[in-house]
Amino acid sequence: MGKDFSKNLLKSYTYWDVYLHENQGYLGRCVIWCKRSSAEDLTEATLEEREELFQILKVLRELVQRTFDVDWFNYSFLGNETRHLHCHFIPRYESKREFMGVIFEDTLYGHNYKTDHSFETSEELLEAIRNELVKNF
């Protein structure tokens, strides 16, 4: 994964790890990372990896929905910048949300998501979101 994201680990499974994305412009955004080092393309996932991935997506969807009252979810398998099998799990919000005094606003709700690289996620905020999700996992 290039950088060390281990501090953002939410849960480890047999074939996948679930990390909180370091940019929380979309509150609760996660990355689901395939542990198999040779994994690149979703169509090459093994049967076991696919089955576990769908279990994780269901559990994560319910968890983030319950925690942050999400209106919709996007799932993205791009691989453009990082050529390894992973899923961007992006909660979408029709209206503003507040967490730890920070206002989260999904200005593109109803349209394709776009990472707001100017959104600053402090270490304290990232840790608080991570702790909230881990306690509810």
Description:
There is one protein chain. This protein has helices at residues 47-68, 123-136, and strands spanning 9-12, 16-20, 30-34, 72-76, 86-92, 97-99, 102-104. The strands form two sheets. Strands 1-2-3-5-4 form a five-stranded antiparallel beta sheet. Strands 6-7 form a two-stranded antiparallel sheet. The chain is built from two helices and seven strands; from the N terminus they run βββαββββα. It has 137 residues and is of the alpha+beta class. 26% of the residues are buried. The two termini are 23 Å apart. The chain is globular and about 40 Å long. The chain has one domain: HIT family, subunit A.
| Total number of strands | 7
| Major β-sheet strand ordering | 1-2-3-5-4
Distance between the termini: 23 Å
Q: Radius of gyration from the CA trace?
A: 14 Å
Tally of individual domains: 1
What is the top-level CATH class? Alpha Beta
Low-confidence stretches: none
The CATH homologous superfamily is called HIT-like
Structural class: alpha+beta
N to C succession of SSEs: EEEHEEEEH
- How much of the residues is beta strand, in percent? 15-25%
Total of helices? 2
Do you know the CATH architecture? 2-Layer Sandwich
Give me the secondary-structure topology.
Blueprint: E1 9-12, E2 16-20, E3 30-34, H1 47-68, E4 72-76, E5 86-92, E6 97-99, E7 102-104, H2 123-136
Short description:
The chain is of the alpha+beta class. The protein has 2 helices and 7 strands, in the order βββαββββα.
